[in-house]
Amino acid sequence: MSSVNPSRRRLLLGTGAVAALSALGLPSAVAAPAVSAVSAPEDPDVTGLGPGNADFPLMSATLIGETVWIGSRNLAPARVIGYHLPTGRVTATVDLPTGNFVQGSAAFAGALYLGVTDAPGATNLYRYDGTLTALGTVPGADVRDVAVAPDGTVYATGRQKGRAAGPGLYAWDPATGAVTEVASPAPTATQGRAVAATATRAYLGVGSNLAGGSGAGPARLYAVERATGAVTDITPPELRGDTVVRRITVLGDDLLAVSTEGAPAHVALLDPADHRVLRAFAVPGTKSVTNFQRRGDTLWFTSTEHGVLWRHDLATGALEQLAVPVPDGNSWGLGRYGDTLVGVTEGGTVWTLDLVGGAVAIRDLVEAGAPASAQLGMSVAARGGRVYVGGNGSIALHDLAAGTVHKLPVPGEAKDTVVLEDGTLYLGVYSSQGIWRYRPGLDAVPVQEAALPQAQNRPQVIRRDPSSGLLLLGVQADTTGGGSFVTHRPGTDRPTVHLDPLGPGQLVRAVAAGRGQAFLGGDNARPTGPRGDLAAWDPVAGRELWRTATDLGAGVSSLEVHGHTLYGLTVDGTAFTVDLRHSGQAGYVPVIGRRAALGAAAGTNPRLLAVGGALYGISERALFRLDRDTLAATVLVEVDAEWYSGARLAADEDGVLYTLRGRELIAVRP
Asked: Are strands 277-283 and 289-295 parallel, antiparallel or unpaired?
């Protein structure tokens, strides 16, 4: 979920709470002092370093005539650009007044229909035919897909967080201009992902590839009679065990449906007349495929996480990898222009494949004229005069001495990063990309070092244990719920994965290392269920030392070890401590000691960083120093930062801090 704050705020710090009982019912040995509201008495040296990661990341593409219309991702404003195939240039840019992702995209009668995410209470459906027209609003939805029926009715679905009825299928009526709910057949699914429409039926694909587990519904495909509203479950047997129906496409006289997050992904071709399965097949070695084109019995499609283009012969069943146009980019569109296939990948590239000669051409959209803009930040790391800022499909490498910024392609999103003493950058990459590595001067681009189990797809944190030299990761499992604690020896390809170390349902959002131990903090991606547990592990032996529930009332956002104390922040901004002097010894009982509500300074999902003798915190609102004794927060810089999944903070070997202010990278010398 985006953490965007378009306006500045005056910060008012909250007051601390008294010490409370631990989850074991024992009193804390240390009383919690009150935290007073404080101003910012210090005047740190702040240097602006330009946009953190400026590019044109994307999330959709639709071919109309000679132009590919490409929807942006994590840019403000959200926009669509027109890439003209004959000239290889961006010839049009259309800014949208709402939204973050432009994910839904469809063509009808020469017009482009669009659906956007992150537009609460505002328009999230548009039409562009030379003029941008707001069509209406799918209530509370991040619109994931749109389709247009032959009579011009627009169908849409998406993610409606917290909606008890599950994801709905909605229709915009061109005659009345009204958006109405058509059906909600899957109350346990967490999102609608795909729609399609014919003259008589609309189709809805749902599942739970976000906030899965705990009984969340699997992949299902529904047919909805447009005249009566009657709903029928037509999910092919081959797709029923997978996580979500990712794409539904009308191809000639057939209906094609794809399930993803399977092992492997599955494709099914159905007869729209009676929904018989004409052909179904698995795509080996991939969890997600989409973006289809067809000519006769030849079917082309892309593997979203590997950039692979496939060809399938519907007559013979032959399946082959045809090309790998952009191996380091997730695919978000595929069109056919005569004898040329054209696709786009998330990091801002467009590619073409000559079906006759087999030549592949790749074009960077910014070089082709796309407006590069600062995207929402994902991660930040710093060392040796280099600062890395993660985004969609890339890492921006800021060379501070040279004053240059270099784009390093990375598939997906580098959710967290860490730099070792030798300058090697390690990345935890979403989705299901595992652990990546970049060595300046040795690696031309980042490379994957180790894979994780497919379900362990969303790294939350990566740290280095100074005692053992191991990398420590906390991971979220979107599809199954829960998560894992991962240890990895740099230079090897076999990480050790401990599934659900905090019990079923809790992901590992926070990891810290100290005193030869690793400390884990839990959260939950679903609105109900356990959260806030703490645990200690011996990372070398791979065994749990202790685990305890807490009465924190929220998930743990971040942990840091300083001296003999474990410091933590909850996702709703409460600071707390645990005395570690006897951690790992027989009879040790972890007890929450001091605690304090940090108020506005902490925002949501704040994080901690120990630098030298100081403890710093970062949120989308402020960079602050946390007093180790009183837990009072002193604001150093108001940042109103724009991150995608929570604010991040890094420090180099000289103690200079790096984070975002708005979408600008800043260096702070406290």
From this structure: unpaired
CB 205 within 8 A of CB 171: no
Cα separation of 611 and 51, whole Å?
25
- Asked if the model's pLDDT at residue 475 lies above 50, the reply is yes
Among all chains, which residue has been given the structure tokens 């959209």? Answer: 365
CA 248/CA 358 separation, integer angstroms: 28
Two tokens, residue 246: 């990712």
Amino acid identity, position 410: V
Q: What are phi and psi of 328, to 5 degrees?
A: -105, 25
Half-sphere exposure at residue 492, Cβ-oriented, CA atoms within 13 angstroms: 10
Do 344 and 354 meet the contact criterion of CB atoms below 8 Å apart? no
d(C-alpha 478, C-alpha 210), whole Å: 5
Sheet (strand 360-364) strand order: 331-337, 340-345, 349-354, 360-364
Burial profile 220-230: b = 16 or more Cβ within 10 angstroms, e = fewer: bbbbbebeeee
Minimum mean pLDDT range among 38-42, 294-298, 558-562: 38-42
Complete domains list, the chain, with CATH: 45-52+375-669 (2.130.10.10), 96-324 (2.120.10.80)
Q: What is the distance between the alpha carbons of residues 385 and 397, in angstroms, rounded to a whole number? A: 10
pLDDT of residue 253: 86
The three-point CA angle 355-357-358 to 5° equals: 65
User: How far, in Å, CA of 410 to CA of 536, rounded?
Assistant: 32
**What residue type is 135 in one-letter code?**
L
Pair of tokens at residue 165: 């009825």
Instruction: State the Cα–Cα distance between residues 85 and 193, nearest whole angstrom.
Output: 29
Question: Residue written as tokens 């600008």?
Answer: 664
Amino acid at 266: H
Total number of residues shown for the chain:
670
- Residue that is written with structure tokens 């409460």 in the block: 574
Answer whether 198's CB lies under 8 Å from 250's CB: yes
User: Whole-angstrom Cα distance, residue 299 to residue 334?
Assistant: 12
Q: Which two tokens stand for residue 244?
A: 């979500």
510: left (phi over 0), alpha (psi -120 to 50) or beta: beta
**Residue linked to tokens 């432009």:** 102
pTM exceeding 0.90 = yes
DSSP state of 238: G
CA distance 125 to 114: 6
State the Cα–Cα distance between residues 290 and 293, nearest whole angstrom: 10
DSSP 8-state symbol, 25: S
Contact between 282 and 265 (Cβ < 8 Å):
yes
Which one is predicted more confidently, 559 or 214? Answer: 559
Cβ atoms of 163 and 140 closer than 8 Å:
yes
| Bridge partners (DSSP) listed for residue 538 | 543
Both tokens assigned to 521: 């903090």
pLDDT at 33 over 50: no
